[in-house]
Design a protein that fits this description.
Layout (H helix, E strand, L loop, with lengths): L5 H5 L11 E3 L3 E4 L1 H5 L6 E2 L10 E2 L6 H12 L2 E3 L9 E6 L2 E6 L17 E5 L7 E12 L4 E10 L11 E5 L7 E5 L8 E7 L2 E6 L8 E5 L6 E5 L10 E6 L4 E6 L2 H5 L11 E6 L5 E6 L8 E6 L5 E6 L12 E7 L4 E9 L8 E3 L5 E5 L2 E5 L5 E6 L6 E7 L2 E6 L2 E6 L6
Parallel strand pairs: 2-5
Antiparallel strand pairs: 1-2, 3-4, 5-28, 6-7, 8-31, 9-10, 10-11, 11-12, 13-14, 14-15, 15-16, 17-18, 18-19, 19-20, 21-22, 22-23, 23-24, 25-26, 26-27, 27-28, 29-30, 30-31
């Protein structure tokens, strides 16, 4: 259904588009400025664990109209807050004595506006988790072009009283046939011990594995063809790391990884932490290792996801805090300058309105993609929320991986993909 309103016309002119309604297309809902400024109901509230379309309508007047709006948002595939979600960029061309703008015809979503249809494909549905699990998590997603395949780890968040159990397999998504991806279990040898983050470097996959009471947390290199694994980093001068979560590696071989208290606090599967939460810099060329940000300076508690920008001059770091379901939870993405010896100029890049951004990725135009409850949130390079790429109702996006111009999204229950007009970093 396409709803054409006065706002649809006015949206062509951003300076006067102050309508308070929604622009509803077949798969896109565009949130107008007025609607975003003033929620159109007299009394409302929202828990930090639920997405915007689950905002609670408290005691008040007629709820039918606003409930229709929330249902429209819930049923959309894409939610647009800013027209940049359609547009890739504007090029400015200066020649001799005149100046003019050349606007790119390319759109991030591949559509020109809300009245064109576009879909997110569901690629695979994971089997249900075992009885001891509270939920399943799919993290550490990475694309390996040499194998034309994506890899992602699986974790089962245990119920209270249980510990996390190591899983001998990871999932492989073979996209040799792009029209019909084939998803199957593959078995690293030796197996990983609760892998979270993953990064491809020089043809190998580097996993950040949490470890457990008998296997120290470590960085493990895996040959994606043979699945042979080797521990390449597992200590800080004899200290065990707490529970590594994510890793990125620069083109010249400098790795940054996050280390938090997830194993001890959340999953009851590691030894008592002896080190502060932190972000570590490991020079793979020299072996030098040092903490470059963390709880010791009061900035991070349970840091999580990592992503470089396009030229690796910036590093994005997600901070979960004690609990993503707590109003005091961090739910923050920080942006840092990458220096010759570490990080500097830390600033808040964004604060998530639901859950926390677990996995994060960037594209060649320096947008940032955060996996959260119900969607992947897309920000421009300034940290402005442009829009959301929705996942199935009730699902939580956990991580992503780029395969050319396809963004693969790994949720708790499904794998999704969407074709965009940009590519990953």
């Amino acid at each position: 259904m396409v709803v054409i309103t006065a706002c649809a016309f006015l949206s062509l002119f951003p300076t006067i588009a102050l309508c308070k309604g929604l622009i509803v297309g077949p798969s896109v809902v565009e949130i107008t400025q007025g609607y975003n400024n003033v929620f159109p109901y007299e009394n409302f509230n929202r828990n930090v664990t639920v997405p915007t379309w689950d905002t609670s309508l408290l005691n008040g007047g007629d709820k039918s109209v606003i409930q229709e709006d929330l249902d429209a948002i819930a049923n959309a595939t894409f939610i647009v807050y800013d027209s940049e979600f359609y547009k890739v960029r504007i090029h400015r061309l200066i020649a001799f004595v005149w100046e003019f703008l050349l606007t790119s015809l390319h759109q991030l979503l591949g559509i020109s506006g809300p009245f064109e249809e576009k879909q997110v494909e569901e690629v695979f549905t994971f089997p249900d988790p075992p009885a001891y699990a509270q939920r399943q998590i799919h993290d550490g997603s990475v694309y390996v072009p040499e194998e034309n395949a994506l890899f992602v780890a699986e974790l089962f968040s245990p119920k209270e009283g249980y510990s996390m159990q190591a899983i001998p397999y990871v999932w492989k998504v073979d996209i040799t046939d792009r029209a019909s991806p084939n998803t199957s279990k593959v078995y690293p040898n030796p197996p990983l011990t609760i892998a979270n983050g993953a990064y491809r470097f020089n043809g190998s996959i580097y996993w950040a594995q949490e470890g457990n009471t008998t296997t120290p947390s470590s960085i493990v290199r895996m040959n994606p063809k043979t699945l042979e694994t080797e521990v390449v980093k597992n200590n800080f001068y004899g200290h065990r790391f707490n529970s590594m979560n994510d890793i990125v590696i620069s083109n010249d071989g400098v790795a940054f990884f996050t280390d938090g208290y997830y194993g001890w606090d959340n999953f009851n599967d590691t030894l008592f932490p002896e080190l502060a939460n932190g972000i570590w810099r490991w020079d793979m060329r020299t072996g030098n290792i040092k903490m470059v940000a963390g709880a010791a300076e009061g900035a991070f508690f349970n840091p999580n996801g990592l992503a470089f920008n396009h030229d690796q001059s910036k590093l994005f770091i997600t901070n979960r805090g004690n609990s993503s379901s707590d109003a005091d939870g961090a739910r923050t993405i920080y942006i840092n300058d990458v220096t010759a010896s570490g990080l500097s100029n830390r600033n808040v890049f964004s604060y998530s309105d639901a859950g926390f951004p677990d996995g994060i990725k960037t594209d060649q135009d320096n947008r940032v993609y955060g996996a959260v409850v119900g969607s992947v949130d897309v920000y421009n390079s300034d940290g402005t929320l442009l829009g959301r790429i929705k996942v199935a109702d009730g699902d939580v996006a956990v991580n992503m991986a780029w395969a050319d111009n396809w963004l693969y999204i790994f949720g708790r229950s499904k794998i999704y993909r969407v074709e965009l007009t940009t590519t990953g970093r």
